[in-house]
Amino acid sequence: MSLSACGIDFGTSNSTVAIRDAGDAHAHLLPLEDGKHTLPSAVFFNLDEDSLSFGRAALAEYLEGYDGRLMRAMKSLLGSGLMDAGTEVGGRHLSFRNLIGCFIGEVKKRAEREAQRNFDAVVVGRPVRFVDDDSEADQLAQDTLQQIVAGLGFREVSFQFEPLAAAHAYEQGISREELVLVVDIGGGTSDFSLIRLSPERRGQADRSSDLLGNSGVHVGGTDFDKRLSLAGVMPELGMGSLLKNGASFPNSVFFLLATWHTINQVYARKFWRSFLDIAPSVADSRRFDRLLSVVNKHAGHQLAMQVEAAKIELSAVPQAVLALDEAEEGLRIALSRSDFEAAIDSEVARVCASAQQCLDQAGVSADKLDTLFFTGGGSAVPALREALARQFPAARAVEGDLEGAVGCGLAVVARQRYA
Ligand SMILES: Nc1ncnc2c1ncn2[C@@H]1O[C@H](COP(=O)(O)OP(=O)(O)OP(=O)(O)O)[C@@H](O)[C@H]1O
Ligand SMILES: [Mg+2]
């Protein structure tokens, strides 16, 4: 029986939905917000208006200063050990399962409205590793996502590795056989598939003999944000400073503030109490006041957004300046590309090691590779591109649709599986 099917790419930073109908030469993304094909994976609980918003609208309402709670990088909660916890929104407990269900449910609703039909079946993308080095926790993350998505009314829910989905999208447009390493650097994870693609075999159901390997590591653009924040911004809020007695100011608050999916924890009352306790011992009161100001104004996400914007700017220019008036009126922090690159050095090395692992598993040497196919927003970071180009000098680099390749590939797979 043929089911109405779609592909959903629930991303750490951005989500997309794509379909491929009978007779369509290619899969295509559905507009999800004001004609745009991505919906930033963000939810804002607006307590002033008692309303809920999603995507860019959620980010805008938060930045407009409404009282409420912004949630981002929700996918990072899957498999994190925080999954069974939740958060408090307006005095009520919100489980993270319900939160993720609420967001993906909205994605489904918008896609169905756009496609003018209900979807019975879905192929959902998943990173090759939700959790590094722990298969049990990794499986649990997929099971949790499966339950959440099934609870939204789909009759069929299945998964596909995100880089493999992107490979299917790339294969739609090639004209001869290529050995391709798909490089998908997302917000939360970096994922690789090594696959032989060819115009003759596209569309065949069983491609297991062409798929030579998958690998992935829990490093992505949100980790680059975190490293940049810890290296260049948090020290200005007192990280690394000493107390009057020579002891170090506790670090944990800075790590929570620099990590997208833990920012809200800093607004807990226990933190505020600990700040009051420590205040008399603080030696650098100017920086401490900046920290208090950010926490008091619930400006943690705003800060993270500015750091992210600076990171993106540094892909194009050597210097970026952050305006941190929320911390202290007039505070400006200059960040340089070289400092950023030094801060993400070990992350880049881990991504490159994961890429190498993909080839090693398959026993394929680097000189056999024809193509590096880049997708995912994080693949725009020049240091990462350059490191991978050095590692695989024989391969030509192809830049895919950085936003849409995974979603479109999931729709190709959904059509094969369900239509
Ligand atoms: N020009 C750029 N330079 C550097 N980073 C960028 C650029 N553009 C986007 N990014 C980063 O790319 C990341 C988002 O990429 P993408 O939308 O592919 O992730 P995702 O699919 O949501 O995440 P995942 O696949 O890991 O779940 C963000 O961290 C964003 O800051
Ligand atoms: Mg992605």
List the helices and strands and how they pair.
Elements: E1 5-9, E2 14-19, E3 28-29, E4 39-40, E5 42-46, E6 51-54, H1 55-63, E7 68-72, E8 86-89, E9 92-95, H2 96-115, E10 121-126, H3 135-150, E11 156-161, H4 162-171, E12 178-185, E13 190-197, E14 211-217, H5 221-233, H6 252-258, H7 269-278, H8 285-296, H9 300-314, E15 319-323, E16 332-336, H10 337-343, H11 345-362, E17 371-375, H12 382-391, E18 396-399, H13 405-418
The structure holds adenosine-5'-triphosphate and magnesium ion.
Describe this structure as you would to a colleague.
By secondary structure, the protein is an alpha+beta fold. The chain folds into 2 domains: 188 residues, 2-Layer Sandwich (Nucleotidyltransferase, domain 5), CATH 3.30.420; 122 residues, no CATH class. Helices cover 38% and strands 22% of the residues. Strands 1, 2, 3, 4, 10 and 11 form a 6-stranded mixed beta sheet that branches. The protein has a 5-stranded mixed beta sheet with strand order 14-13-12-17-18, sandwiched between helices. Strands 6-5-7 form a 3-stranded antiparallel beta sheet, sandwiched between helices. A hairpin with a 2-residue loop joins strand 8 and strand 9. Helix 2 packs across helix 3, helix 4 crosses helix 13 and helix 11 packs parallel to helix 12. It starts with a strand and ends with a helix. The site of magnesium ion (MG) has 7 residues, from loops.
